[in-house]
What does this fold into?
Amino acid sequence: MIPDLSQNVLEKLERRIAISEMAGWLNLAVTIESGQLIYTLGFDEAHIGNPVIRAIHGGVVSTFLETASWYETYARLPEDVGINVTSVHTNFLRSTTPTDVHASVSIHRLGRRFGFLEATCWQEDRNNPVATAETGIRIKRPDEKSSLAIKT
Amino acid sequence: MTEHSDIPSPLSPVQQAARAFIESEHPLFSSLGLKATRISEGEISFRLTVPAGYSDGEYVHSGIMAIMLDTILGNAVWTSLDRFVPIATINLKTDYFSKVAPDTPLICSGICEGIRDDVAYSTGRAMIEKSGELVAMAAGTFMVGTRSKSKSRL
It folds into this structure.
């Protein structure tokens, strides 16, 4: 079962965004629309992949989708739970323009130790996504016992 | 583990362009102090450090590894071509292993495993230079020769 969003979820996310240098570099912002968190990569010249063609760097788009998935997980779990991205698989559906990018995240499963999420991003038209990313997230709860067989 | 420079002289024109793009022509990569340590046909390797400006908490954000590896995998494709054509990332899978403190010297390398029709396949990894500890691993596919320059992502 996926935990619901709390009433003060935006305050929680904005506090976390404010202390992250990388979130600042991404110009990351979050809003709620129809009960769904919407993330925005605020365009900046530093996000350009090639100054000649002025498309946003694919790695920046991937990082944005990974980060949105991290925050979607963070939004739904207590603050003392550890959240580590283990993998992100991004498909670049079409080229980007030098404008803001928006994303929403679907949670396929948030288990006790692992989460599976899929983020989708778009620019002007939500019906024309520019990229999608499947993200795997390791979840470490405060009461988790470490395995003696695995080096951590 | 320390990787020494392995750069032939002279480089082919496309290898020179790939090196210049990463080392000096791009503001983001310039901020990471990238220096080529190996360039050969289909293989490329750079030394870099990630400053605190790309951190999330006490470690650098894992996404900066995806940004670097996307670029270096694409560069590995370029070094295997005999002429410079636009390429675009189709997909990229990045696995994260270790967290890295800011300003840790890293080695980031990429190999173009092959090109079939107009799709190139690359793999790569980022390691801590001193210890050789794996930080991230990536595999990506790239469209070689996009229809117009304006459609290229790189």
